[in-house]
Amino acid sequence: xxxxxxxxxxxxxxxxxxxxxxxxxxxxxxxxxxxxxxxxxxxxxxxxxxxxxxxxxxxxxxxxxxxxxxxxxxxxxxxxxxxxxxxxxxxxxxxxxxxxxxxxxxxxxxxxxxxxxxxxxxxxxxxxxxxxxxxxxxxxxxxxxxxxxxxxxxxxxxxxxxxxxxxxxxxxxxxxxxxxxxxxxxxxxxxxxxxxxxxxxxxxxxxxxxxxxxxxxxxxxxxxxxxxxxxxxxxxxxxxxxxxxxxxxxxxxxxxxxxxxxxxxxxxxxxxxxxxxxxxxxxxxxxxxxxxxxxxxxxxxxxxxxxx
Length: 308
Ligand SMILES: NC(=O)c1ccc[n+]([C@@H]2O[C@H](COP(=O)([O-])OP(=O)(O)OC[C@H]3O[C@@H](n4cnc5c(N)ncnc54)[C@H](O)[C@@H]3O)[C@@H](O)[C@H]2O)c1
Prior knowledge:
Layout: E1 4-8, H1 13-24, E2 28-33, H2 44-48, E3 52-55, H3 61-67, E4 74-77, H4 84-89, H5 91-112, E5 116-122, H6 123-126, H7 146-165, E6 168-174, E7 176-178, H8 190-195, E8 201-205, E9 211-212, E10 214-216, H9 217-229, E11 234-238, E12 244-245, H10 246-253, E13 256-260, H11 275-281, H12 289-302
Helix pairs in contact: 1-9, 5-7
The chain binds nicotinamide-adenine-dinucleotide.
Nicotinamide-adenine-dinucleotide is lined by residues 9, 11-15, 32-38, 57-59, 78-82, 97, 101, 120, 122, 124, 174, 176-177, 189.
């Protein structure tokens, strides 16, 4: 095992938290990120600790080849177009980044002789309106957006490269991730929006009884590190298995709901079964929602203003 690892999308919310954890593990870390939604700001500490940032796109073969010198032992592939509404408005762009970009990363990994890839996928989106709650990995994928479809296709390509070329591949189907560095602008998670809210009033679409499975970023990073150190091919949900309604969340953050019309196409209930992650990776979510919210609010309050 070499010490070098590559994190695509490493300047983003989850990626930058992962980079910090990999540096803690003594890894040499390269980040490939085009800074489209991520920020150098997220990496200030990591760059000071020796991480290398290549400002480039996963659609650019030369940038990928550069990022894979020296050859990383493991590629953590997180770079993606994550905005569901943008994906609906421009599915070609979404597929270009999430599918063609993933294929370009896989091709680069194959050419360089990378051993292992860990893919960030989405359980929250891929299962759609699932019949079984909490939803196990055996549930049939039912994408309800181009974003979910491109992620499902990226998963399929990773497994293909594993079968064709022996590239070890592990896919993490993430639930709704929250925590420090999540951008409250754009189509962020509801927790980032609520924690950055200074009005005391939360916009709630529909009746607020729609549910999500909120998993803290520190726990998600732990799952990535474990998946990177494993030697198996596989896929599992990374989630808490607990449902929280948007109304309950607003109350927990101390906000009064301001009801607005329901948004079409929104998934009603999302909650993923985490038991396979325990069996495969020895992983469980350790941070309670209460603890995670406190950590997120503290980070938001103490964080220096980020450049727009
Ligand atoms: N946040 C969640 O709740 C959640 C849930 C499920 C899955 N995921 C997945 O986790 C991963 C990370 O998501 P995040 O929430 O940290 O989002 P993010 O937007 O903060 O991170 C994505 C990163 O990828 C970079 N990027 C985008 N297009 C790129 C390109 N063409 N080339 C290079 N870099 C590019 C962005 O600049 C950004 O730094 C994504 O793959 C996302 O689909 C996130």
